[in-house]
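Thread: Newbie trying to understand structure tokens

Hi all, I'm a second-year student working on a class project, and my supervisor (Dr. K.) asked me to get a predicted structure for one chain before our next meeting. I've only ever worked with sequences, so writing a 3D structure as a token string is new to me. If someone could post the tokens and maybe explain what I'm looking at, I'd be very grateful. Here's the chain:
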Amino acid sequence: MTASQPDVVIIGAGPAGLTAGLNLVRARRSVLLVDTNRPRHAPTLHSHGTLGLDGIPPLELRKIGREQFLAYPGAEHTTGLVSAVAPDLTVSVSGVRGGPDLTLQPRAVLVATGLTEVLPSIENLRAYYGTALHSCIECDAYEESGKALALLGSGPDLATRALEIAHWAPDLIVFSSSLSEGDTARLARAGIAVEREPVVAIEGERAVMTGIRLESGRVVVREGGFVRPDWVPQAAFLSSTDASFDDAGRVIVDARFRTTAPGLYAAGDVTAREPMQIAVAAGEGAVVARTIHLDLLDDVL
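---
Reply by user tm_fold:
Sure, no problem. This is what the structure looks like when written as tokens:
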């Protein structure tokens, strides 16, 4: 695609990208949405906490969002992987699943690629991820209320996450060898146990999780729980631009979701924002759409 170039290229078709795209085509902007169709939340059966959509399957939400976006003139979608964004905003796309290779020259680029989750290397963890085990406390803790839960993983915020989970499910065990003595004591005061023996597998019967198997072979009975993965932002294709990144590799933006590179914007989980909920990402998509629209108006004045 070189003859007819869109006003805006949006990279990523999650809640932030789709909401931005919908608002931009309603502002009579031409928009091309580029996505690999490999969403982070694919294993999740139901999403929660979004007004009017509580309990909707995330993949169904994406399907509805894309259909609503594409119903407007000026809206296009392609399945592809962005390999590079140049300082002049030229976007290079490698087609996947039958999508074409493209070289695009839009007036603005929005990055809404989100994160990749790197889960702990534990046998059978992925078999229960999205059903019995979750990463988003705000999204899924209510459904786990009162159960015997586990918290797996590591990270500086692990103790804080444990205290938050225990609000819904006091019978909680944190499985981690990386907690400091101070955090361990903090959890002990709250009645939360810490198990430092390495976890080797998730036990279960068919789709029902029943426990955590440790290196010694001992199985600790648990009905479900949460995982603290490592989150890796998907923004390496911006390396030749003037965009700035924080220590975790997330894109730094201002209050209106402009990056430090002219014409380049970012919203959703690829930026340094919390919590990582659909409603939050969608809200950012609406804000950045207005920012882009107004900036494009300024360009012709």
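A couple of things are worth pointing out once you decode it. DSSP finds seven helices and 17 strands in the chain. Helices lie at 15-26, 58-70, 125-128, 137-140, 158-168, 181-189, 278-299. Feel free to ask follow-ups in this thread.
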